[in-house]
Amino acid sequence: MATISDPPEQGFRLSQLIFDTRYRSMTIQVVAMVLIGLLLSWLISNTIHNLEALGKDFDFGFLSQPAGYDINQQLIEYNNQMTHGRAALVGILNTLLVAVLGCALATVLGVIAGVLRLSNNWIVSRLAAVYVEGFRNVPLLLWIVLIFALMTESMPAPRDFKGGDGPSMLLGESVAITNRGVYIPNVVFSRSLGGNEVAAAEAPAPAAAATPGTNMAGTYGASRIATGGAGIQAGQNGTTAGAGGSGTSAAGEGGEVIPSSSGWDWLLILAVLVAGSVGAKLLGKRAAHIQEATGKRPMTLPLQIAAILVPLIVVLVALGASLDKPELGGFNFDGGVHLRNSLIALWLALSLYTGAFIAEIVRGGILAISKGQTEAAYALGLRPGTTMNLVILPQALRVIIPPLISQFLNLTKNSSLAIAVGYMDVRSTLGGITINQTGRELEGMLLLGLFYLVLSLLISGVMNVYNSSVKLKER
Amino acid sequence: MKKTVTLGALTVAALAAGAAGAATLDDVKARGELKCGVSTGLAGFSAPDANNVWQGFDVAYCRALAAAVLGDPMKVAFTQTTGQTRFTALASGEIDVLARNTTWTFSRDVDLKFEFIGVNYYDGQGFIAPKSLGVASAKELDGATVCIQTGTTTELNLADFFRANNISYEPVPIETNAEAQQQYLAGACDVYTTDASGLAATRATFENPSDHVILPEIISKEPLGPLVRHGDNEWGDIARWTLNALIAAEEYGVTSANIAELSSAPTNNPEINRLLGTEGELGAMLGLDNEWAKRAIMAGGNYGEIFEKNIGEATPIGLSRGLNAQWTEGGLLYSPPFR
């Protein structure tokens, strides 16, 4: 009878690090880590050495120096006396604007095209196929440049709108499509929360007009840059830089209030809208409760509409809202909102291009749902549209969302192609003019990389939260 | 013993560092080709002709430098740079010298660590507008849309000008001169602003140049000149004195027509003799042979000849000498003496 004795205790030998599977994986990891560390330290020391050889230092101080250049589209107040950091912020907001607009439109286009490509109607499905293949297989840059060139070359210049026989404005003289962009009416308030601009050549603007809120405008940049001399005259006549904003609205007599809009007005309106929709939703829930208890559903739709609309109208009247239509004045249209060609070209091209990819994702998601689901829904008497909305799409979402996140990230990063049409995004301000004027390539590019990284992680994080809320609940 | 080794290592390191900083001339000679950065195409200053050979005022300087260093004016590889890429191209060593209508400013010289080797064109920023706009002065441009090449000094001057005059404008940032021209002609901007020489060059390529007017205001000083990297002083000297040789040649009356005769034997003007290498050892001091300046001048003529041939009044660009005349004729061109 054999007895099993413990294996003889052996001391640790170095060769075990390679030949013993218990230690080998750790050896490989340690070696890999050392190699990566060496590579990093070589990169860093190389950078430091090269910077020294060029006689340059590593300093972010340039961010607080005056930028000196103008940006045509500003969502926050900015003039060329502000810092490079502020200019970068203006660029960041412009990037975010085109990314948000682009993601929204691309999703709508993509879902529609994806569903239509599966249509039984031959013409409809072929048209969707032409759209998808056309945009998917031609580089994005070409689409951006093409749309920009179409807008610039084929539309009339603002000065052509003078006189009777030229082109005329659309929708009751309120929308002008020109080769510099589209001018649409702007909502302005005669009792703006940010304080109204006062057109006055003599009387110095009141302090309220100098608050940053005034020029926030909520528009895509007060229609153009008012480089009023106020910035440099500040010391002489006691007005502040913000007062230069009144340069855009030189009409009117001394002391007359010019309607304007500020970020606070739009925040208030947004808050009222959100509150209204929450109220409407509560009304719907209450109706559902009553229906469960009594079997009768009270009339809710008019109440819901009223819950949203009534507070909104009250606020608009209280603020004294009116439409500010664009009008020809001097060289350009004055007033209204100016959607620049660069923004429109970038937005449309990004949306159409990414939309084509999203369409394929949506098509794949729908195809992943078993045909039996559709047949079962039809057997219950559901119509095709209802089947798609209530049965197929909710299940398809689980397949659609993860690749959709990648498309949103792509669109956001592709917005840096703005350079092709002169759209002033963060790549053009911080990564372009600022670097060029200050010579801080390394610092600027690091900041730019960091921004895109944070933005991408943010989008990815938010979308993943949404994904976990719609994915199959496993218990 | 140990000390000696350390000292020796230090010396070697120092020598290596010195050599690394001063290698441009050796690099160019070893390569057999000068890498010159120019603009992406500006008629008269740098643009390829019908045979795809680069021609122009800035190009002529590159050719003169190549002739001085390599003996052949055609041994130049041209790299097109935009307002935004030019400095990176130079700093990274992609090009040996940048000759691209670049304004000599304090921060570029000091902070960006470049070395401007002189001025080859004294310029100022101006505006061009269609005649039909009815504008006679840049001060009437309140509210105008202005096309501008981004990443340039003109961008900063423009902001200053409108701020100082308390008027507003809408900037349309554009990458290259060609794009700006297309936008301007399409009416996407009311006026286009850049250096006055660039405006004249651009206007010359229009279908109807007379329909466009260059406004009288010159809103800035723009001394344009070639530049090299900071820290390689030998290369900087060669680049600087090649430009000076072209300017001095015009002053002394050395032209491509008479240079063969003047350089065959010493003349009675010692300055010409030293310039052309028939007297003294100026070439050796630069690390070149004594005929370097002769070759540079023969490449395209002296400064005046280059000017007249590429951008002068007889060309479509039609620039008068103005500030760019010799100091003896009331201009600003003034080469330090060759001695």
TrEMBL record, chain A:
<feature type="transmembrane region" description="Helical">
    <location>
        <begin position="128"/>
        <end position="151"/>
    </location>
</feature>
<comment type="similarity">
    <text>Belongs to the binding-protein-dependent transport system permease family. HisMQ subfamily.</text>
</comment>
<feature type="transmembrane region" description="Helical">
    <location>
        <begin position="23"/>
        <end position="44"/>
    </location>
</feature>
<keyword id="KW-1133">Transmembrane helix</keyword>
<feature type="transmembrane region" description="Helical">
    <location>
        <begin position="343"/>
        <end position="362"/>
    </location>
</feature>
<dbReference type="GO" id="GO:0022857">
    <property type="term" value="F:transmembrane transporter activity"/>
</dbReference>
<feature type="transmembrane region" description="Helical">
    <location>
        <begin position="305"/>
        <end position="323"/>
    </location>
</feature>
<dbReference type="InterPro" id="IPR000515">
    <property type="entry name" value="MetI-like"/>
</dbReference>
<keyword id="KW-1003">Cell membrane</keyword>
<feature type="domain" description="ABC transmembrane type-1">
    <location>
        <begin position="92"/>
        <end position="463"/>
    </location>
</feature>
<dbReference type="Pfam" id="PF00528">
    <property type="entry name" value="BPD_transp_1"/>
</dbReference>
<dbReference type="GO" id="GO:0006865">
    <property type="term" value="P:amino acid transport"/>
</dbReference>
<keyword id="KW-0029">Amino-acid transport</keyword>
<dbReference type="GO" id="GO:0043190">
    <property type="term" value="C:ATP-binding cassette (ABC) transporter complex"/>
</dbReference>
<dbReference type="InterPro" id="IPR043429">
    <property type="entry name" value="ArtM/GltK/GlnP/TcyL/YhdX-like"/>
</dbReference>
<feature type="transmembrane region" description="Helical">
    <location>
        <begin position="445"/>
        <end position="466"/>
    </location>
</feature>
<feature type="transmembrane region" description="Helical">
    <location>
        <begin position="87"/>
        <end position="116"/>
    </location>
</feature>
<dbReference type="InterPro" id="IPR010065">
    <property type="entry name" value="AA_ABC_transptr_permease_3TM"/>
</dbReference>
<keyword id="KW-0812">Transmembrane</keyword>
<protein>
    <submittedName>
        <fullName>ABC transporter permease subunit</fullName>
    </submittedName>
</protein>
<keyword id="KW-0813">Transport</keyword>
<dbReference type="InterPro" id="IPR035906">
    <property type="entry name" value="MetI-like_sf"/>
</dbReference>
TrEMBL record, chain B:
<feature type="signal peptide">
    <location>
        <begin position="1"/>
        <end position="22"/>
    </location>
</feature>
<feature type="domain" description="Solute-binding protein family 3/N-terminal">
    <location>
        <begin position="33"/>
        <end position="262"/>
    </location>
</feature>
<comment type="similarity">
    <text>Belongs to the bacterial solute-binding protein 3 family.</text>
</comment>
<protein>
    <submittedName>
        <fullName>Amino acid ABC transporter substrate-binding protein</fullName>
    </submittedName>
</protein>
<keyword id="KW-0732">Signal</keyword>
<keyword id="KW-0813">Transport</keyword>
<dbReference type="Pfam" id="PF00497">
    <property type="entry name" value="SBP_bac_3"/>
</dbReference>
<dbReference type="InterPro" id="IPR051455">
    <property type="entry name" value="Bact_solute-bind_prot3"/>
</dbReference>
<dbReference type="GO" id="GO:0006865">
    <property type="term" value="P:amino acid transport"/>
</dbReference>
<dbReference type="InterPro" id="IPR001638">
    <property type="entry name" value="Solute-binding_3/MltF_N"/>
</dbReference>
